[in-house]
Amino acid sequence: MTGRSTADVPAVAGALPIVGSLAATPAVEAGLVEFRPETHSLPSFFMWTLGCQMNQSDSEEMAGQLLATGCIRAHSTEDADLVVINTCAVREHAEAKVIGRQGLLADLKRARPGLRVVLTGCGVREAERTGLARRFPAVDMFLRPDEEPELALRLGLVSAQAAIGLRTVSTAATTVLGGRPVSAADRLAASRATALAENRIARSSTISAWLPIVYGCDKTCTYCIVPFSRGPERSRPFDDVVAEARQVAAAGYRELTLLGQNVNSYGHDLPSEERFRHIDTERSAGRRLDLRSRPDLAELLRTIDAIHGADGRPAIPRLRFITSHPWDLSDRLIDAMAACESVAEHLHLPIQSGDDAMLARMGRQYTVAHYRDRLARIREAVPGIAVSTDVIVGFCGETEQQFEATLAALEELRFDTVFAAAYSPRPGTPALRMADDVPPAVKRRRLNDLLARQESIGLEINRGWLGRDLEVLVERVTPPRRGPLEDDTIDDGADDPGVGVPPLAGAAGEGSVALAGRTRHNKLVHLAGNPALVGRDVTVRVEYAGPFALRGRVIAGPPVEAPTEG
Ligand code: SAM
Ligand code: SF4
Ligand code: F3S
Questions:
Q1: Nearest 5°: phi and psi at 218?
Q2: 226 lines ligand 2 (CB under 6 A)
Q3: Predicted confidence band at 481 (pLDDT cuts at 50, 70, 90)?
Q4: What pLDDT digit, counting tens, does each position of 359-391 carry?
Q5: Ligand 3 closest atom vs CA 94
């Protein structure tokens, strides 16, 4: 994207309870003036997180802030003093979900006048700030993604910080993108470093950790709102990322996922350094960048992989990263994936369309041939690697023939999983200048056709695992099975619920419950076992393969004691 310039808007720091650009929205502020949780009672908060892993990670950071100021977690909106909604805006449907809850939240506020609602995440865009109060009438305060580190400060909760040494970071700044003000991720790396130093990341799992390495997005996808909600790419300093990985390793995490809209372009905006002089990668597609002597994702993978435990093996056994962009999938990165023991055999590489003209209209800046070449190279380097992708159907001008080309690409490239969605026009994106001319019924039909086609491909691939013994990291006790209508496999960041896998026929021994975990190839596996297996590796013999998940029997694992009653 061209024509970017950065213009800092001076932050109003230090004032309480509300500072920064919210000062420009007095109607919104007014609702917060009363937010004065009493010191003798601990205010409780509930976080509702939508969207991708980046949002989940951001919510962990916000929850950490609130916990550090003395708040406690509530179990639901109904018993919270504060509701924080971390929104996604990738499709209209994601925003509509939150708009649809406004009535319920307004009712709750009438019943409990002390309740306050904060809306954060990609739904809060600077260019549309004036319309936010109208669209989300139950909300008292809006924070852009880059303003989230100020949550506690803006709520007036910082009076509690002196006791615990919480430092606040003023992040308010804007960047102009195509003439529109957007988020500026400039200071997020610094605020993450502070949060880590103060042990203020409330990680939601004790098994798998998220680790953001690059904020924002510099790509040119014409349909996508992310660059407008999260601003341009900003990489975290190399040593900060490695230090966080060390912390995660020391805390005993089994899995680490490096996060960014485009993790493959990590480091291009960091200063060049002598210690990275062996790095001279060139981008193979898209806008050229000088990547010489700057850290890259390959360097990060190798460095984190080299953090060893007492047994001399990688301290974090599974290292993942998401999302990759075909522009930046360099040979150096592929070689690092192949060389590092901990890097899991799974890659998420969005293709979006199987037609070159559509890819050009989408601003993806690669061709199907380029994508095919990258995939072949990675499959050669990491045999058997599982690959997932994203596809958009019904983008502006997509003909039946072009849609068929996408189906043909799925047949040819054989993805393990496809996250597909119908094109949804997003405010302010370049695609708004094109005609959204594929009728909704056609988009729906194409989406259904594509998902049906992928279902048989996924099933064929998964059947290849039948009878094999796989290492499964057990992640959770599974709640009662959900019905097919609740299949959320096309939602971003949503877990595959295992639709198509029959329920477990009885427990595998006394004290067994239904469990779920993942293989290194990121396959969801259902199994039965002792709940104490959660967080442990077990060997599972695959006995059933569905299109989205496997089911198997534990044949080896760590010894666990049967749970005692009560
Ligand atoms: N950065 C990733 C990449 O390189 O593609 C994807 C991040 S985006 C938040 C997740 C997915 O949402 C995209 O891959 C795309 O398939 C989908 N998406 C984005 N904008 C969309 C839109 N306007 N309508 C439908 N799907 C969209
Ligand atoms: Fe959106 Fe494209 Fe950036 Fe992915 S690469 S976040 S699809 S603009
Ligand atoms: Fe949604 Fe923002 Fe993620 S738009 S998918 S929450 S980056």
A1: -105, 5
A2: yes
A3: low
A4: 999 999 999 999 999 999 999 999 999 999 999
A5: 1
| Closest to 68 in 3D by CA, of 50, 86, 48, 45 | 45
Q: Do 37 and 181 fall into the same domain?
A: yes
Residues at CB less than 6 angstroms from ligand 3: 51-52, 54-55, 88-90, 121-122, 225-226, 229-230, 492
pLDDT reported for residue 292 = 83
Characterize 351-383 residue by residue with b for buried, 16 or more Cβ atoms within 10 angstroms of its Cβ, and e for exposed: bbbbbbebbebbbbbbebebbbbbbeebbebbe
* Residue 366 alpha carbon to ligand 3 centre in Å: 23
Give the binding-site residues of ligand 1, using a 6 Å CB cut-off.
52, 90-91, 223-224, 226, 261-262, 323, 325, 350, 352, 390, 392, 421, 423-424, 426, 492
Which amino acid is residue 560, in one-letter code?
Answer: V
The confidence band for 524, taking pLDDT boundaries of 50, 70 and 90, is very high
Q: Report the separation in Å between the CA atom of 56 and the middle of ligand 3, taken as the mean of its atom positions.
A: 10
User: What separation in Å is there between the alpha carbon of 19 and the centre of ligand 1?
Assistant: 33
Domain membership flag for residue 528 = yes
Q: What CATH number does the domain containing 245 carry?
A: 3.30.750.210
Q: Which residue among 52, 219, 264 is best mutated to probe the pocket of ligand 2, counting the most ligand atoms within 8 A of its Cβ?
A: 219
Q: How many domains does the chain have?
A: 4
- pLDDT band for 63, please (50, 70, 90 cuts): very high
Confidence of residue 36 (pLDDT cuts 50, 70, 90): low
Q: Indicate whether 457 and 365 sit together in one domain.
A: yes
Reported confidence tier of residue 559, pLDDT bands at 50, 70, 90: confident
| Helices 297-305/331-339 angle, 10° precision | 10
Q: Ligand 2: which residue has its CA nearest to atom 2? A: 221
Residue type, 272: S
DSSP string, 499-546: TTSPPP-S-SSTT-EEEEEEETT--EEEEEE-GGGTTSEEEEEEEEE-
Q: How far is the CA of 15 from the centre of ligand 2 (A)?
A: 36
Do both 178 and 263 map to the same domain?
A: no
Of the listed ranges 80-84, 111-115, 169-173, 532-536, the least confidently predicted one is 169-173
| CA-based nearest residue to 227, from 282, 279, 265 | 265
CA of 221 to the centre of ligand 2 (A): 6
Total Cβ atoms within 10 A of residue 281: 21
Type of residue found at 195: A
